[in-house]
Amino acid sequence: EYDLLELQDAIRKVLMPKRYLHSLGVQYTCAALSMRYECDIMKAQVAGILHDVAKCYDNSEQIRRCEKYNIPISDVEREQSYLLHAKLGAYYAKSKYGVEDEEILQAIAFHTTGKPEMTTLEKIVFLSDYMEPSRRMIPGLTQIRKLAFEDLDLAVYTTLHNTLNYLKSNGQIIDNTTNEAYEYYRGIVG
Ligand code: DGI
Ligand code: FE
Ligand code: FE
Ligand code: FE
User: What pLDDT, in 10s, does the model give residues 156-168?
Assistant: First the structure.
């Protein structure tokens, strides 16, 4: 049903080379984690290769396109409009790349913020985005890369924890969904 070579080709055409390399890295990291957690390897790879498809648009263009397609924009998303590439990406995955699987679309839509009660596939995409091989080194990344293969929920929690600390130390505003995801995973690993 899905043609990964065709999707890779399409993504290579719309994204900058480094962003394309990142997308390939997410695709293959999704495959590896799906093997570990017995998730659908094809579905995870489709979500992985497509997850940043909307990164080809700048911030104001993302707002413009979300308005055009009636994708709801929260106050935080209007302020930090790069967050919209996740929901806009899910929209394009469906409308432009023919993905109809709701779980894949949700995994793309929530790959930046995460959300409470993620499916295994959603957790795999969220983590793969953070840990794929070409991601530039940040504190705690080495630990997360190992932890992801040992305890999926603890890795999701630790990633949210590190991301929130990073955002807060930079005075960035936090999306409700990111906070809700953090509280939820803190509750289940704590
Ligand atoms: O698109 P990528 O760079 O591959 O990764 P991403 O879509 O996960 O975006 C990562 C950035 O998003 C990272 O700098 C953390 C930031 N982020 C995640 N949740 C929030 C957030 N930024 C703000 N301002 N608020 C959030 O809730
Ligand atoms: Fe992204
Ligand atoms: Fe991310
Ligand atoms: Fe990404």
Answer: 999 999 999 999 9
The closest residue, in CA terms, to atom 25 on ligand 1 is 174
User: How far are the Cα atoms of 22, 86, 117, 187 from residue 184, in angstroms, in the given order?
Assistant: 28, 20, 8, 5
Q: Where are the domains of the chain?
A: 4-189
Mean pLDDT within 19-30: 98
CA distance 163 to 158: 8
Ligand with an atom nearest the CA of residue 141: 3
Mean pLDDT of 10-30: 98
Cβ neighbour number for residue 89 with a 10 Å cutoff: 26
Q: Please tell me the distance between residue 130's alpha carbon and the centre of ligand 3 in angstroms.
A: 5
Average pLDDT in the 74-103 region?
97
Supply the Cα-derived Rg of the chain in whole angstroms: 16
Query: Which CATH architecture does the domain made up of 4-189 adopt?
Result: Orthogonal Bundle (1.10)
ipTM over the 0.85 cut-off? yes
